[in-house]
TrEMBL record:
A molecular function (GO) term: branched-chain amino acid transmembrane transporter activity
Species: Roseococcus suduntuyensis
InterPro entries: AAA+_ATPase (IPR003593), ABC_transporter-like_ATP-bd (IPR003439), ABC_transporter-like_CS (IPR017871), BCAA_Transport_ATP-bd_LivF (IPR052156), P-loop_NTPase (IPR027417)
Domain ABC transporter: residue ranges: 9-239
PROSITE patterns cross-referenced by the UniProt entry: ABC_TRANSPORTER_1 (PS00211), ABC_TRANSPORTER_2 (PS50893)
Phylogenetic lineage: Bacteria, Pseudomonadati, Pseudomonadota, Alphaproteobacteria, Acetobacterales
Name of the protein: Branched-chain amino acid transport system ATP-binding protein
One Pfam entry name: ABC_tran
Keyword Transport: yes
Signal peptide: none
Gene Ontology biological process terms, A to Z: L-amino acid transport
Record's keyword terms, sorted: Amino-acid transport, ATP-binding, Nucleotide-binding, Transport
Protein family membership: Belongs to the ABC transporter superfamily.
Length: 239
């Protein structure tokens, strides 16, 4: 399953619920190595819940989560992380009382992607963080924290990077920088699933699109197909 063209992540028939309320209904996603898949949908459609179910923060009721051919559905979050899933939540969650460099050091380890990522490479890829390496993460701006959280997630050398609303609440210049970073990561072969409200941002960085509505994936295709289908955009994305 490691060859180019094979699935890095296959989600099949994923159901999840909060208590008695079911919120995901047979979600199916597939992403190959080096792709950036945009998971798009309105607020409350199930984007973040899908990520939490994949990452093990919300144990699924049914379905498979295959990471490079291994089913990790329902395992503890730390086991899923070790299997190759890196999750960047929308609220960032840095370690505020630790420095930028310590945040990276905490996460640094060999993963399913080998040892491609380390602190030196992170500071090279995220030059904004270089002069801040000794600053406490809690004193960073929102954009700096977002960059740090993405960099920290890469330190585990994952198979797949889940980015939940990475542009939310950030200044336009920072959003542009994050978009450029995602495109650069894709060029390096990083596999990414991006959940976003900002459709313009999504379509500028993604290779394929999956649309989720009321907890189910209702459309799949490449970016060109999505752009050419205004009915889908009007039906599932416009408020």
């Amino acid at each position: 399953m490691n060859d180019k063209g094979a699935s890095e992540l296959l989600v099949d028939g994923l159901d999840a619920a909060y208590g008695a309320s079911q919120v995901l209904f047979g979600v199916k996603l597939e992403v190959e190595r080096g792709e950036t898949l945009a998971l798009m949908g309105r607020n409350g459609a199930g984007k973040s819940t899908t990520f939490k179910a994949i990452a093990g923060l919300l144990p699924p009721r049914a379905g498979r989560v295959m990471v490079r051919g291994h089913d990790v559905a329902g395992q503890k979050p730390y086991r899923i992380a070790r299997a190759g899933i890196a999750y960047v939540p929308e609220d960032r969650q840095v370690f505020p009382e630790h420095s930028v460099e310590e945040n990276l050091e905490i996460a640094e380890r060999e993963g399913v992607g080998g040892r491609e990522w380390n602190r030196a490479r992170a500071f090279e890829m995220f030059p904004m963080l270089q002069p801040l390496r000794g600053r406490m993460a809690g004193r960073l701006s929102g954009g700096e924290q977002q960059m740090l959280t993405i960099a920290r997630s890469l330190m585990g050398n994952p198979a797949v990077l889940l980015l939940d609303e990475p542009s939310e609440g950030l200044a336009p210049l920072i959003v542009q920088q994050i978009g450029a970073l995602i495109r650069r990561l894709r060029e390096l072969g990083t596999t990414i699933i991006l959940a976003e409200q900002n459709s313009r941002f999504c379509l500028a960085v993604a290779t394929r699109v999956a649309v989720i509505d009321k907890g189910a994936v209702v459309w799949r295709g490449d970016v060109a197909q999505f752009r050419a289908d205004p009915d889908v955009q009007a039906r599932y994305l416009q408020v």
